[in-house]
Amino acid sequence: MSASRHPALCATDPELASFVAAEEVLQAQTLRLIPSENYVSAAVLEASGTVLQNKYSEGYPGRRYYEGQQNIDRVEALAVERAKGLFGVDHANVQPYSGSPANLAVYLAFAKPGDTVMGMALPMGGHLTHGWGVSATGSWFRGVQYGVQAGTGLIDYDAVRDLALAERPKLIFCGGTALPRTIDFAAFASIAEEAGSILVADVAHIAGLIAGGAHPSPAGHVDVISTTTHKTLRGPRGAMLMCREEHAKAIDKAVFPGLQGGPHNQTTAGIAVALHEAAQPSFTAYAHAVVANAKALAAALLERGFDLVSGGTDNHLILIDLTGKDVPGKVAAKALDRAGIVVNYNTVPFDPRKPFDPSGVRIGTPSLTSRGLGVAHMPQVADWISRAVDAAAKGDEPALAAVRAEVADLMAAFPAPGLPLS
Ligand SMILES: *Cc1c(COP(=O)(O)O)cnc(C)c1O
Q1: Is 97 a catalytic residue?
Q2: Assigned domain for 332 exists
Q3: Per the domain annotation, does 40 fall within a domain?
Q4: Does pTM top 0.70 for this prediction?
Q5: CATH number for the domain including 172?
Q6: pLDDT tens digits, residue range 334-372?
Q7: How much distance in Å is there from the Cα of 125 to the middle of ligand 1?
Q8: How far apart are CA 33 and CA 52, in angstroms?
Q9: For 245-279, what is each residue's pLDDT tens digit?
Q10: Considering 5, 55, 237, 334, which one is annotated as catalytic?
Q11: Nearest Cα to Cα of residue 5 among 15, 20, 16
């Protein structure tokens, strides 16, 4: 990091500054394929690092427990208005600290400990906070879980309906962290209506695709939309809850004072900027490019003999099943990392291996698309992945180093938003 970029930090705490500088280099030189990550714009970075940080503002605009909110109220009201406009919802709460506490607020709003809640099983692609056992949501509530079909890797909506009607859960969550296919919100809505359940769409991964019109919107189908702001939406780390007017009070009360104290106003500012960016035509183009890149990358991986869960993708995410390659997910992920390609190992549905040492690798295209890579680059990306996985099988470190150098060369030609040019 040049001292001119963060002069005070370099002067005050050179040790910490050196870690940040190293991270800037890492993010610049590597091909970042983790589907929940992105590069925020310089404007979002600036908004997230402002003196709004210094202010306590428990409550909501116009109804605070602290004075001096003249500017903070305008920041939060702007973020709320932009969220409502972008997602077409009656109400938005932009205060949740992150996706997990946002989901916890939904439980607090609609369920009591011990109530039955339903979500997709974690190893099938769901999220911890959808009632999975090791999460507070699975120990304080009675989680029942649906999955995908063994053959197709697709959600079996008839099975979801059967489970919902048998269990009559208070809450049903749809959405997840490793779902490569379009979610049918209308199908979930009719199931939830029949079962008398509150339906929550957790669109953390796909919020940016929805905003850009590259995935159908849950608005109008579900009771509550929960989302992080830092994945495809390309904002700061944070979250939002959106709902119909009838649920607005319950949601707001659950977030504050139910679960949180003062909102992180500097994050709210970053969210407002990200929502403004996401409302531009260029973001619509971005969202569609993310999907086009993912489809092209999936096709190129299939050509190179990779198995993909569900056979491909409709969105930004691809789940590679390495069972046939004889390289466990963790070994592949660590080799890819040495090759300058950053992914995460992941369970695949019906994984015979353990969650900490699973059979899959999860990749996605939000970050590379933010750098400006297009479908023409995807065969090259697939080729690097293929070479790195083969090298992992053989323990061929020079081959990994060769890929790393090629990756760094291409990355140098596609500077990432928000990073220093060097
Ligand atoms: C990422 C994610 C979350 C949690 O977000 P954090 O900000 O990491 O707490 C919740 N639900 C889904 C579906 C996610 O993908």
Answers
A1: no
A2: yes
A3: no
A4: yes
A5: 3.40.640.10
A6: 999 999 999 999 999 999 998 889 999 999 999 999 999
A7: 12
A8: 32
A9: 999 999 999 999 999 999 999 999 999 999 999 99
A10: 237
A11: 20
